[in-house]
Design brief:
The complex is a heterodimer of chains A (315) and B (292). Chain A has one domain: ABC transporter involved in vitamin B12 uptake, BtuC (Orthogonal Bundle), CATH 1.10.3470. Chain A contains 13 helices and four strands. In chain A, helix 2 packs antiparallel against helix 9 and helix 2 packs across helix 11. The longest helix of chain A is centred in the last third of the chain and has 27 residues. Chain B has one domain. In chain B, a hairpin with a 5-residue loop joins strand 1 and strand 2. Chain B is mainly α. Classes of the chains: A mainly alpha (315), B mainly alpha (292). At the A-B interface, helix 5, helix 10 and helix 12 of A face helix 4, helix 9 and helix 11 of B.
């Protein structure tokens, strides 16, 4: 795929998403919203994994915080105010990312993977046992939030809100990555020591990236809780962290567009396999194993399949 | 002795037993990382598989020891098979792909377990001649199997130490962790060494699951629970260090057991707080050389 074709494809995709409510039914729109929510989540992780080289396996912690924030801010039988609850959820996730980032960024590489996983699980076990968060059963968010006169439970309001959030997150990440900050992150990924000797305070850059990623993950979690009307400890869990990492890698990390593609493929696959069999995790797992062995560059570059087989033949 | 002191001693025994068991699982994880550079998320699944094998074979044979004799070689074989078919291709790949592939494996193992044995919670009976409690005071006693469990774990730990420190094979293993090419140049088949170490790690984790089965129930998700604690153990001890894993496991055993008794409201989180504290103090763990 050539570089020039991307903006056209993106524009087409956006038009399709805007026009989708005209043709798709409720099921299709819900699925599309789910894909967009997971795309925001996957993009946020891609900032860490694909650009700064920080492989977090506990990213669901911030997703969960965003979701639980909506639950806590919703009155028992009414909807929360969007203008109050959404910023609050994002800020809560960002704050948590700041505190956790201070701790986990002391480590790198494999340590970072293990420590982030452990912190994510810490949230899981806490929510699992905390009665004020609904314990292991979770809790219901009875009504979607409302934005002034617009009720997100009515019509296509929620769908369009998620679409706007996706577009805004995409643009934000694009701008960040084109700015000097983004170039510094890429530099840190390829050589932390050299960046430091060039005078960059790399820990600050990493922490800022971690906080931005956490905030966007919180945004995605907020929408997740709003869409399904339920929160439970699984939202913090390693399985979600793993599957979002899958989306990033499968889509091809280091490409924001790839994260969206990965999210779409994985959510659709989940849906399709889930309809086919109750044991859908088995083919899913086998798909992941096969993808790692056969597609080193991710789905966004299928040509890599051909390259690996060819390379093997030459060995 | 007073009852409070005896109670304290019982908790101490529990803590040591939990720590030793944890070490058996964590040692495989840290060995596989230290020697082959592989981060293996599916390691907890081997613990789960061990427990279920013990359940199935103990049910068929009616004897836990017989079940062990069948299931331990079986899990060793599973390790050999997995290394040959999958893990061999991961050595040169980035940690990221190792995480991903082993994550996929967890899903496969969990579903296969669900299809073959189901999702029910099971129990494994304690062997007959150990099915009694040692009375300590009028009201307090200690189950004999738990005591035996600690002894078994200690014996296996000692054997592992001897294998790695005192045998030719152990020497090759340690050398392989240090410099792969040099070992190969000396005419040692490093591929074979890797395969054996991986299978040993799998067998250790599965063995831990088997002997733990009579004290805990056998349930879905037990593998992931133990995996996370093992990660914490290895991070505290320093990745790749067996000595560190041993100390880390005992520390976690103590913190977790006494935390549950004296600060039950925080019990689930104390282990992570311990990890955070160690990380602030020593980012590479107690015995880690450098943060990699």
């Amino acid at each position: 795929m050539t570089k020039q074709a991307w903006p056209i494809l993106l524009g087409l995709g956006l038009i399709v998403l805007i026009a989708l409510p005209l043709v798709a039914g409720k099921f299709g729109l819900d699925l599309a919203a789910r894909i967009m929510i997971m795309a925001i989540f996957a993009m946020s992780l891609d900032l860490l994994v694909g650009f700064a080289g920080m492989v977090s396996l506990g990213h669901a912690a911030f997703f969960g915080i965003g979701a639980y924030a909506l639950y806590l801010l919703s009155p028992q039988y009414g909807g929360a105010s969007l203008f109050l609850s959404l910023p609050a959820a994002v800020v809560a996730a960002a704050l948590a990312a700041f505190v956790i980032g201070l701790l986990v960024l002391r480590s790198s590489g494999v340590y970072f993977i293990m420590v982030t996983l452990a912190f994510g699980e810490m949230f899981y076990y806490y929510a699992n046992g905390a009665r004020w968060l609904g314990g292991s059963d979770g809790a219901y968010v009875y009504q979607r939030p409302s934005a002034g006169p617009i009720d997100l439970g009515q019509g296509h309001a929620f769908y369009y809100l998620v679409l706007i959030a996706l577009a805004a997150s995409y643009l934000l990440l694009r701008v960040i990555l084109r700015a000097p900050f983004g170039h510094a992150l890429r530099g840190i990924r390829s050589n932390d020591h050299r960046m430091r000797s060039l005078g960059f305070a790399t820990p600050h850059y990493k922490l800022l990236a971690f906080v931005i990623a956490g905030a966007l993950a919180g945004l995605a979690g907020y929408f997740d809780a709003a869409q399904f009307g339920v929160v439970n400890p699984e939202l913090f869990g390693w399985r979600l962290s793993g599957s979002v990492l899958m989306m990033v890698i499968l889509g091809g990390m280091g490409t924001i567009d790839g994260a969206i593609l990965g999210a779409a493929v994985l959510v659709l696959l989940e849906n399709f396999l889930g309809d086919l069999t109750t044991h859908w995790l088995l083919p899913m797992g086998m798909f992941i194993v096969a993808a790692v062995l056969l597609l080193p560059q991710g789905l966004i570059d299928p040509a890599s399949l051909w390259r690996t087989t060819r390379a093997r033949r030459h060995v | 002795m007073s009852d409070t002191l005896i109670f304290f001693l019982i908790q101490l025994l529990n803590a040591v037993q939990y720590g030793l068991l944890l070490f058996l699982v964590a040692s495989g994880l840290t060995l596989i990382f230290g020697i082959m550079g592989i981060i293996n998320l599916a390691h907890g699944s081997f613990y789960m598989i061990g427990a279920y094998l013990a359940f199935v074979f103990a049910d068929v044979t009616g004897n836990l020891w017989l079940a062990l004799a069948i299931a331990v070689p079986l899990s060793f074989l599973l390790g050999l098979l997995l290394e040959t078919l999958l893990f061999r291709f991961l050595y040169s790949r980035d940690h990221l792909y190792q995480v991903l592939l082993t994550y996929g494996l967890i899903l496969v193992f969990e579903e296969l377990r669900g299809i073959t044995v189901g999702n029910d919670v099971h129990g494994v009976p304690v062997p007959h001649f150990l099915d009694f409690s040692i009375p300590l005071t009028a009201t307090l006693s200690y189950p004999a199997y738990r005591l035996a469990l600690s002894v078994i774990c200690l014996v296996v730990t000692a054997l592992l130490y001897l294998l790695i420190q005192k045998t030719k094979l152990g020497m090759a293993i340690r050398a392989g962790a240090f410099n792969r090419e040099m070992v190969q140049t000396l005419g040692i088949d490093i591929g074979l060494i890797y395969r054996l170490v991986f299978a040993l790690g799998v067998a250790l984790a599965a063995f831990a699951g088997m002997v733990a089965a009579p004290t805990t129930s056998v349930f879905p998700g037990m593998g992931n629970q133990v995996l996370i604690v093992c990660f914490v153990t290895v991070v505290i001890g320093g990745i790749g260090s067996i000595k560190g894993a041993f100390l880390g496991a005992l520390l976690i055993g103590l913190v977790d057991t006494f935390g549950a008794v004296y600060a039950p409201q925080f019990s689930g989180m104390l282990v992570y707080a311990l990890m955070a504290a160690v990380l602030i103090w020593r980012p590479a763990g107690l015995f880690g050389a450098t943060a990699r």
